[in-house]
Amino acid sequence: MNLLRCMLALVPATAYLCNDGTCHTELSASFLQVEKQRRKAVSEHPWPHARGKAPHQFGNTQEVWTDHKLSWSYHHPDGRFHNIMAGGPVIDVDKNLYLMSGKGLIALSPSGDVRWTYETPGPCNNEVTLHGDLVLGTTKEGNAFAVDRHTGKTQWVTKLAKDAGGDCGYPAAFKDVFVVGAQQAKENLTGGNWLVMGLKTDSGEKLWEYEADKPVWNLTPLFPGDDTVAFMDFSGGIYRLGLKNGTEIWRTPARESHDSFSDGGAGLGPNDFMYSCSNFRDSTGQEGQQGVARGYKLSDGSLQWERILSSPCNSYPAVGHVKGSDALAVVVTPGSFMGQGRPGLHGSVLALDAATGKDIWEFHAKPFSGLGFQAAGDFEGALTRHAAGVQEMCIPAHWSAPIIDGQGTVLVGRSDGKLYQVFGPEAQFGGSKDHATKVNSGVVAKLLDVKSASLHGALAAAPGMFAMSTCDTLFVFQK
Ligand SMILES: *[C@@H]1O[C@H](CO)[C@@H](O)[C@H](O)[C@H]1NC(C)=O
Ligand SMILES: *[C@@H]1O[C@H](CO)[C@@H](O)[C@H](O)[C@H]1NC(C)=O
């Protein structure tokens, strides 16, 4: 089956070799030279990864949200519940968007036309990433793959392990190394991965593998810009490895939280900091349990501050400037998981001083009680999705990962099916108020109805463009 897929997919290659699920294209030296030059020219993708530009992935953008209006949206032609999206879009230098779904990878033009679709080697619930002309991803069958962004044709497929977790991961690439998770963890919880691996982006060949103390869930590799990679495990433990060799540089277990679980991850700051938002003690992200935000020195992994949060943290930090303070901010979004069989789930958006962890402001959203105690769109879409042969429910965390725009507005999707635009202190709010405006603790937010919940990688930005995918629909906003 793998062999057949490899053979079918390698149409433009001059020769191919498929062995044990691994495909290598053998191309002439001059062709490779031209390829290399072409790739250099496209190294500046505006949103190549779920958390933004690599290296850094601060979860922010210089684009100004309020300058943009809804331009188009995309869902499955038979109806929005006939497919399920994984994570959200990445955006290339030509403003094409790439979105993983239960029915394969979808490439869309800046105006919303489907350019090509790609059947992944095994079901996939991970967001893809861009590296040069490649769209890179991994599947639940433990395969990694590379597709040409222009043609949608396979460049290589590598079998990494017998399987990989069904969680929604955000594998990432930098300096010709694609960092991925594989080998599903089956202890206490099924999902996540035991192994983190570095692959060559041009061939899929494995360079190294690393076994974390605890499984990685929704693995999100972060690149400081040198030859290293950093990430978080599901208890909040953080790691920094050599990007090219997988050698451990440091590793910091989560203080007093070895038995906790979070499906969130870490973020980097421009200040030699790495931030995590996860759960405290034995918290597994449920209502009434505690979360924790931590700031570490990136250079040695030492804990600089810790903030115990009254709600669990199942999300990612965003780092940038918000209104209400000149200091660098880290924004975290505490909130408990969906599907707990109970109403009244609390969620908030907190802007903290990035150097100290002290409050800049807090916005507390109205407690959410979903239909069937599920996220918006999950209960409503389950039967249609079942019939369509895709995963029946999205079961997202409380919030998507937030991003901070060029004017300090925080954007974040919530499981109530709303995009929260949190503007900061009321005194500095220049916009007009209407029925969608909420003020809490002196902080102004506007809610935009997008009907369904979204996963962590929902949001993306490029020059003159914002994009957001819910679990069923991609919305694109343009200038
Ligand atoms: C499973 O749970 C036990 C008991 O809480 C704990 O000691 C162990 O570390 C857990 N394993 C994983 C992989 O989290
Ligand atoms: C691995 O890579 C790191 C980062 O470039 C480097 O500092 C380290 O010396 C390398 N280790 C080995 C054993 O090559």
Structure, described:
With 479 residues, the chain is mainly beta. It has a domain at 1-39. The protein has helices at residues 2-9, 29-41, 378-388, and strands spanning 16-19, 22-25, 69-74, 85-91, 97-101, 104-108, 114-118, 129-131, 134-138, 143-148, 154-159, 172-174, 177-184, 193-200, 206-216, 228-232, 238-242, 248-252, 266-268, 273-279, 291-297, 303-309, 318-320, 329-332, 348-353, 359-364, 403-404, 410-414, 418-425, 437-440, 443-449, 459-462, 465-469, 474-478. The strands form nine sheets. It has a five-stranded antiparallel sheet with strand order 27-28-29-31-30, with no helix packed on it. A four-stranded antiparallel sheet has the order 3-34-33-32, with no helix packed on it. It has a four-stranded antiparallel sheet with strand order 4-5-6-7, with no helix packed on it. Strand 16 (228-232) and strand 17 form a beta hairpin. Bound molecules: 2-acetamido-2-deoxy-beta-D-glucopyranose (2 copies). One 2-acetamido-2-deoxy-beta-D-glucopyranose (NAG) binds next to strand 15.
